Amino acid sequence: MDKQMNYYKIPRDEWQDFYKAEQVSLSQQELNQIQSVNDKISVQDVREIYMPLVHLLNMTLAGKQDLQSKKADFLGIKAKKWPFVIGITGSVAVGKSTTARLLQLLLTTLYPTKKVQSITTDGFLFPNKELIRRDILERKGFPESYDMEKLILFLNDVKSGLKTEAPVYSHDSYDIVPGAVQLIDQPDILIVEGINVLQLPSNQQLYVSDFFDYSIYVDANADLIEKWYLERFGVLLNTSFQKPGNYYYDYAIGNHDEAFKLARNVWKTVNLKNLNTFILPTRNRADLILEKTDEHRINTVYLRKY
Asked: Is the model's pLDDT at 1 over the cut of 80?
């Protein structure tokens, strides 16, 4: 389906005019601290793209709370405040983690009385030993590599207003950290970021997206994403990958041509295949699409009509 069929296509210069009432004073240095490796975000992006988005999210949250209050009145029960859950998805290396961190920072700054937390669904990957047992280690990131039942139970606890814990994934060891957890303590807003958050696995009565109040897809042309993926790999090869114990350590201290050959193969056989088969088809389920072009610049916003 063409994403324009059920979306308003809004160019950047129009989107930026939708909200100018309040701005957050963030420096470029502060933004550099939250952006992912090889991602780019500017003060101008905050003003022109993310401030209107945060305003839209706040309006949506207020609308949800009003509906919950009216529903409670209808049932004759006391209204309860439920967490507002935002899902953010898109390809590997497209910049969805930066979007998640920036939204958390802006929401926390603008609405200091609200508790805002975030998680990544990487923590719900099966441990490597389980992936090996199932003979799917080479399909890490594909739907079958996630413990979806555990993720759904986690989100159900969050939506029920319970304190709960999320597993922690290490990008150094390329594995789940045994015994490590992230406490999710009854937030007003929870941001859930991951490549799989809008997917519809078969034979399940509930989907991850059933728990979302709003969903965002970070989009870009696949050729651009491949370029960003390889650029990021090069940066990591010269920095984080050179730490002993890192999954890619042997490649970092070895022949870099061979390392890039590996990266290109991983992109083609894993990430691109996963994008085309399982991630991209979820794009038209998002409430909003941020479309990136060169230099990670968001030039177009697609807002769902209905």
From this structure: no
Q: Which amino acid is at 97?
A: S
Give the CA angle between residues 93, 96, 101 to the nearest 5°.
125
The total number of structural domains in the chain stands at 1
286: annotated binding-site residue? no
Residue that the structure tokens 């003003």 belong to: 47
| 95 appears as a binding residue in the annotation | yes
Question: To which H or E segment does residue 263 belong?
Answer: helix 256-266
* pTM score over 0.85: yes
Q: What's the CA angle centered on 22, arms 100 and 62, to 5 degrees?
A: 65
Position 202 confidence tier, pLDDT thresholds 50, 70, 90: low
What is each CA distance from 151 to 108, 121, 193, 231, 292, in whole angstroms? 25, 8, 12, 31, 29
Tokens of 284: 């038209």
92 is in an annotated binding site: yes
Two structure tokens written together for 90: 């898109």
Residue type, 98: T
CATH code at position 196? 3.40.50.300
Q: Is residue 285 situated within a structural domain?
A: yes
In a domain, 164, yes or no: yes
Domain containing 220: what range? 7-304
Longest dimension (CA), the chain: 69
pLDDT 10s digits, 59-87: 999 999 999 999 999 999 998 888 999 99
CA atoms within a 13 Å half-sphere pointing along the CA-CB vector of 84 = 21
Residue 97 counted as an annotated binding residue: yes
Q: Residue 3 — very low, low, confident or very high, per pLDDT cuts 50/70/90?
A: low
- Judged against a pLDDT cut of 50, whether residue 256 lies above it is answered with yes
- Residue 38: count other Cβ atoms within 10 Å of its Cβ: 18
